[in-house]
Amino acid sequence: xxxxxxxxxxxxxxxxxxxxxxxxxxxxxxxxxxxxxxxxxxxxxxxxxxxxxxxxxxxxxxxxxxxxxxxxxxxxxxxxxxxxxxxxxxxxxxxxxxxxxxxxxxxxxxxxxxxxx
Length: 117
Known about the structure:
It is a single chain. By secondary structure, the protein is mainly beta. It is built from no helices and eleven strands. Strands 2, 4, 5, 6, 9, 10 and 11 form a seven-stranded mixed sheet that branches. It has a four-stranded antiparallel sheet with strand order 1-3-8-7, with no helix packed on it.
């Protein structure tokens, strides 16, 4: 089992920045990749950014150049640095862990990000 706890959400003005953190614990050796997803009201959950064990990353087109996913292996923590935030980035952001064996994935409880003036 793997447990994921997100933090760092909040209210920010357009153009501002936030850093989300996801602290992982448990059987982390079973994990192949970590990712951030988001879900806005009335919309499906979507992939924002992912990082695999080898360090490769990928991003949704809507956040490329603005968001950066990274990890600190010593702290078992994954981060999402969000710059140049826009109102359309408003959503609940979820941390995700994909096992080597495939789904089902592990999910955190989510953290709210609101971009508004």
